[in-house]
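If you are new to this repository, start here. Below is one unmodified record pulled from the training split, so you can see the exact layout before writing a loader.
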Amino acid sequence: GTYTINPSTGEVTFTPEPSFVGTAKGIEVTLSAPVGRNKDGKVQAEYIKTATAKYTPTVVGVTPTATPAETKDIQGATQTGKPEFKGGTVEVNGVEKTVPINEDVPATFDDGSTTKTVEGVGKFTVAADGTVTFVPEPNFVGTAPAVTVVREDKNGTKASATYTPTVVGVTPTATPAETKDIQGATQTGKPEFKGGTVEVNGVEKTVPINEDVPATFDDGSTTKTVEGVGKFTVAADGTVTFVPEKSFVGKAPSVTVVREDKNGTKASSTYTPTVTPVTPTAEDATSTDKQGQTQSGKPTFTPGNSNVPMDDDVPATFEDGSTTK
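And here is the target side for that same chain:
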């Protein structure tokens, strides 16, 4: 440190280096004064006496304190936390004295940086006041590795504390869909997808389904043809359209629809259509006339369902496919 003396009073001022702690070596102070005069009233050398004394200052160390911070939020959500830093306080000569945190020196991480990216976890950024912002990777779940924040007091004495965020996983849910209609009819069904909801810090939070990402089947396609059954097509919103083969009846094989939430977490559910058969009915016809006369008769055919009429574009035949017998 530096010693300065007031020549008039002999008072010594000691200004320590900010990092110095302990008892200094001290410094000698010398005072010369006349103790007598000759008969002429003049001071002569033999009448000047010198006294020397030592001044020794002691510097009591002061260390700032720091308290770690932890936060918790749902998957994909940005989190912020701020370790608490306080200036150190000590009692000197019966008086409590504090060295405050130096607000003019910005906080950093322990490597001196202000940003830190952890692969597969997320990105940390520390502000000048020590607030840490954590932006997790969308698929990261669990407790992230702690980051260490460093601040210093007015003496340049450093203190450090950690910030640790925890990410609570959220999984979307899905409910299967089933439909039923008559043979040959196009059917549509839509599995229900909902964003996952979890409770964090006493508050329910939801990650919604990402409406900007279209639904697909489980193989990534949007159309699927099942031989002898029919064709499935899935729309962006998850609605499945099923066009059955005309001859197909019964329960079709299920198709799996996949959607994802805003974090990219996927959920899947099935759609299963059932086709009920439609069979037309027929009534016999008879006719009577005298010998040698041409007769005609027309059996009556009735559709099995009003939505499936008899196909008048397909001509009638005998059972062997012929038109004359």
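Two things worth knowing about this chain: The longest strand covers residues 158-168. The chain has a mean pLDDT of 94.
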